[in-house]
């Protein structure tokens, strides 16, 4: 049921007809109300509304997954005093491999089999994942939560530059303003940080660079013509990352600490280890979805936005935040910039109206 100009598909939901209208390749939505009385209400909506929903829902999914895994990991590493974040990360990698391999074996999803080109097709994603894990957790350990979240704002600027040079994406002026506010606020806060820690700053800045690289290369890989897809990227990135992670675990001395840990027969601890492993897979999946439906820059900023509550709560917990007026002002400027970016990015565009001919032959 199509012509050169219009393609119309009719579906029946309860007592209403819904037509999916495609005009010159652009999806519109036409709603026909109450066919029994022939009363018709035509509501034509631009597909940007549906696209906006996908963008917002995937962003919220990523934010929720990121916050939840932070809580679970904090419980395992702090409440139980588990000695190795590296071992925990390896558990998350193994869970990702297990879930995706099982789903593929059952025919629930598809991704390419391992071959001699697979490493080349996924590179440099495994190295980026591994570096992100090491430097991110190292920065968390060395810095107060407010300063950690502020310095993470630099990943936004690096991501924007990476999108421009590698993906040829030119940000809007309003996006540049919001990113400028976030970064300038972080600079103001860092310029008067009485709790300055050189190692912590270096860890976070390396983490910023790798976060930006992760977002940009994920977007590039997902947009490429190769059939790796998001599931293949997740599976093989975890698979190739495990050997170097095991080497780091061994030479760091954590393996012996893990072996001697006293809660291995404690059921609540084992449950939380399992949940953390599952959440590692869910977090990686949410990052892939958010990057696929949005931009690498948006995914990076959502990662910073979800830390807003951490920023303020961190002023009262942990005991390592040192208040100064400039530092506090800089933090708030950066937070306002984050909120402004959210507004200019996720506000839906105005629905466009199209005029259909009075008679359509179907």
Automatic annotation (TrEMBL):
Residues annotated as domain Sugar phosphate transporter: 64-341
Annotated membrane topology: Multi-pass membrane protein
Tagged with keyword Nuclease: no
InterPro entries associated with the record: Sugar_P_trans_dom, TPT_transporter
Protein name: Sugar phosphate transporter domain-containing protein
UniProt keyword annotations, A-Z: Membrane, Transmembrane, Transmembrane helix
Signal peptide: none
Gene Ontology annotations for the cellular component aspect, listed alphabetically: membrane
Superkingdom field: Eukaryota
Subcellular location: Membrane
Chain segments annotated as transmembrane: 49-72, 84-103, 173-192, 198-217, 233-251, 263-283, 295-317, 329-346
């Amino acid at each position: 049921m199509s012509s050169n100009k219009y393609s119309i598909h009719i579906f029946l939901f309860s007592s209403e007809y819904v037509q999916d209208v495609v005009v010159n390749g652009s999806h519109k939505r036409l709603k026909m109300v109450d066919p029994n009385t022939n009363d018709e209400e035509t509501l034509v909506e631009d597909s940007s509304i549906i696209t906006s929903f996908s963008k917002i829902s995937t962003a919220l999914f990523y934010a929720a997954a990121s916050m939840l895994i932070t809580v679970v990991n904090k419980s395992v590493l702090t409440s139980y005093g588990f000695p190795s974040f590296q071992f925990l990360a390896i558990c998350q990698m193994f869970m990702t491999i297990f879930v995706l391999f099982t789903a593929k074996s059952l025919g629930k999803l598809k991704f390419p089999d391992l071959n001699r080109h697979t490493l080349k097709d996924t590179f440099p994603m495994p190295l980026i994942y591994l570096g992100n894990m090491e430097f991110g957790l190292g920065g968390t350990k060395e810095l107060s939560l407010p300063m950690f979240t502020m310095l993470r704002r630099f990943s936004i600027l690096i991501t924007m530059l990476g999108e421009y040079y590698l993906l040829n994406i030119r940000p809007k002026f309003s996006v540049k303003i919001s990113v400028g506010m976030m970064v300038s606020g972080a600079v103001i806060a860092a310029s008067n940080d009485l709790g300055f820690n050189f190692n912590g700053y270096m860890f976070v800045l390396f983490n910023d660079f790798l976060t930006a690289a992760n977002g940009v290369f994920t977007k590039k890989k997902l947009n490429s013509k190769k059939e790796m897809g998001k599931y293949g990227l997740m599976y093989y990135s975890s698979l190739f990352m495990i050997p170097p992670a095991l080497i780091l675990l061994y030479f760091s001395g954590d393996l012996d600490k893990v072996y001697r840990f006293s809660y291995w027969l404690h059921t609540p601890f084992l449950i939380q280890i399992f949940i953390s492993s599952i959440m590692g897979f869910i977090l990686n999946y949410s990052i892939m979805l958010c990057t696929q439906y949005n931009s690498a820059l948006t995914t990076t900023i959502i990662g910073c936005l979800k830390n807003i509550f951490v920023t303020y709560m961190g002023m009262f917990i942990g005991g390592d935040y040192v208040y100064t007026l400039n530092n506090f002002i800089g933090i708030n400027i950066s937070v306002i910039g984050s909120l402004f970016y959210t507004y200019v990015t996720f506000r839906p565009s105005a629905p466009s109206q199209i005029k259909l001919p009075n008679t359509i032959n179907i």
